Amino acid sequence: MASAINFIKNTVIRSCLPKIITVCAFLPMLSQATIADKNFQQCKANLTTRAENAGFSTYITETVIANISPIERVISLDKKQPEFTQTFAQYIKARVTPYHVRVGKQKLKQHKALFDKLEEKYGIPRQYLVAFWGLETVFGKHKGKMSVLNSLATLACDKRRSEFFTLELLNLFTLIEQEQVSIDQLQGSWAGAMGHMQFMPTALLKYAVDGDQDGKVDVWQSEIDAITTAANYLNKIGWHSKERWGREVKLPENFAFEKVVFDQYYPLDYFQQLGVMQTNNKALSTYNIPAELYLPSGHQGPAFLLYPNFNVIMTWNLSKSYALSVGILANKLVGAAGLEFLEKTNSESVYSVSEMKNLQSQLNSLGFETGKPDGIWGPKSRDAIRSFQIEHQLIADGYPNKALLLKVESVWLQTNNDHDDV
Fold first, then answer.
1. 19, 198, 310, 371: which has the highest count of C-beta atoms within 10 A?
2. Tens digit of pLDDT for each residue in 102-143?
3. Nearest to 328, CA basis, from 89, 120, 30
4. Positions of the chain with pLDDT under 70
């Protein structure tokens, strides 16, 4: 089951709808920005106070919160997300499988009339909706069996992202109080995501649509409600209906990596000037669209140009590997071939979280700023690695391969030895 922790994290809340608990609803309470406490009973007390201040009924504050209990396994799962523990090839192969493609095509046929209607109303191509569905729950097979209330409470009481999950929990209380969901329904993922499409409470509260028009929204049992809500969500967060997510590309030999800053958009024709081609060796489109170069495995792996819709996918889940899985599966559902690199990538190795933390610490000490070491290969780390590679005449792909890890350690040790000799 794909992680949905960041389903709504990048969503811009333009207005505070009634009873939707967002940061803007708590401007006078920023000093109480977290309920986290190592003692779960104290954390529940903090949550009760927060809920009382937000105007919830005594049913929520005295009954629902009273019955919440922690799930220790949630914290363990949170620390072992596959985006950080698998190679890119492993991640893709586990999620874009022949089963996903076969069943996905069946779903496209089964719900053809619905997809016709949704494409016309919301402008979301059907293959993307089915791709999300397949990646989130394998088309409803794995919707999660954990208590959503207990999972969210456990994460809200953990200091790392307490405020985010506290807001999700408060919005779940709103769903309960407004009788949009029942306590018995509330089973989902360890991160609190629910139903066929794994909606977080805030997303369900803000974007839910009664697709089958039976008078209620049930994203657990109604495929139509879940798919329609997903289409509405993607439309509202800015999907460009006539554009694709991106594409796999082929870089020329001796590609000028130093001329491309990662996590930055350039006009598509800029990449044409650098010799980037489609994988079939045809020229890139002349369409006027911004593009970002992404190398999930460094210069020895695949290369992708990512377009604005890719960022829309990442609003659903803040993982580039996840977003690429959505795009690749969507392509295959409408007849595209697989990725060439998956057939030839056998020896790719992934850095460990501890190795990345160590690398980040060493780069920081050498003057290449990565921010606080967290073990995640994010934008700051890519930029720091790239700068180090340029300075030391290495291929500037921004990737932490074994050779890079060894080189940084060598320079770091030499620098420290030099300081000791002074």
1. 198
2. 999 999 999 999 999 999 999 999 999 999 999 999 999 999
3. 89
4. 1-33, 80-85, 338-349, 418-422
Q: How many independent structural domains does the chain possess? A: 3
Asked, for residue 348, whether it belongs to a domain, the answer is no
Question: For position 402, which CATH number holds?
Answer: 1.10.101
Global pTM value: 0.87
Using alpha carbons only, how large is the chain's radius of gyration in Å?
23
CA distances to 83, 92, 163, 361, 390 from 86, in Å: 6, 10, 28, 22, 27
- Six-digit token pair at 374? 């967290």
Residue whose C-alpha is closest to residue 143's, from 206, 187, 86:
187
Domain extent for 38: 1-240
DSSP one-letter string for 372-413: S--S---HHHHHHHHHHHHHTT--------HHHHHHHHHHHH
Q: Which residue has the tokens 């016709």?
A: 116
Is 346 inside a domain boundary? no
Q: What is the Cα–Cα distance from 239 to 232, expressed in whole angstroms? A: 10
